[in-house]
């Protein structure tokens, strides 16, 4: 399976021919796919899908003015929470050596605050 091994390309293997298989994902082999990165992109896709069905079930595109003084919709708040969560994780990785799950919990709390008050 693609997520069991590290599939990263290098300049030495750019022109190298390889056998095509049924699950050949040659277009994404440039990235180091691990279960963590796959989970991250799956989470983003699930957030967007959930937002789609939430909007279909209860159309609420009317902007809301929050504590920032900006008019934001649900999609705006999702974007702000995802962007802020990425900054929280990058800062956590750069400033501490503690496990990353704590940054994930902080990011979830941040996302709840953004959806509630922004």
Question: Could you give a quick summary of the protein structure above?
Answer:
This protein is mainly α and about 120 residues long. The protein is built from three helices and two strands. It has one domain.
Give your account of this protein's structure.
With 118 residues, the protein is mainly alpha-helical. The protein has one domain (11-117). 53% of the residues lie in helices and 3% in strands. A hairpin with a 5-residue loop joins strand 1 and strand 2. Helix 2 runs antiparallel to helix 3. The mean pLDDT is 81.
Features:
single chain; 118 residues; mainly alpha; two-stranded antiparallel sheet; 2 strands; 3% strand
The poorly predicted ranges are none
* Tally of individual helices: 3
The total domain count is: 1
Spatial sequence of strands, sheet with the most strands? 1-2
- Radius of gyration, Cα only, in angstroms? 19 Å
Order of helices and strands: HEEHH
Query: Which structural class do you get from the secondary structure elements?
Result: mainly alpha
Largest pleated sheet: 2 strands, antiparallel
Give the beta-strand count: 2
* Outline: extended
- Determine the mean pLDDT: 81
Helix content: 40-55%
Beta-strand percent range: under 5%
List the helices and strands and how they pair.
Elements: H1 35-57, E1 64-65, E2 71-72, H2 74-95, H3 101-117
Antiparallel strand pairs: 1-2
């Amino acid at each position: 399976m693609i997520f069991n091994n590290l599939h990263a390309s290098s300049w030495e293997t750019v022109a190298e021919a390889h056998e095509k298989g049924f699950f050949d994902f040659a277009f994404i082999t440039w990235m180091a796919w691990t279960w963590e990165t796959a989970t991250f992109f799956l989470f983003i896709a699930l957030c967007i899908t959930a937002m789609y069905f939430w909007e279909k079930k209860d159309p609420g595109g009317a902007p809301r003015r929050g504590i920032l003084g900006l008019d934001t919709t649900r999609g705006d708040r999702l974007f702000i929470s995802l962007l802020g969560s990425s900054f929280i994780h990058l800062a956590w990785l750069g400033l501490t050596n503690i496990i990353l799950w704590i940054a994930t919990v902080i990011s979830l709390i941040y996302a709840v605050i953004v959806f509630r008050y922004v």
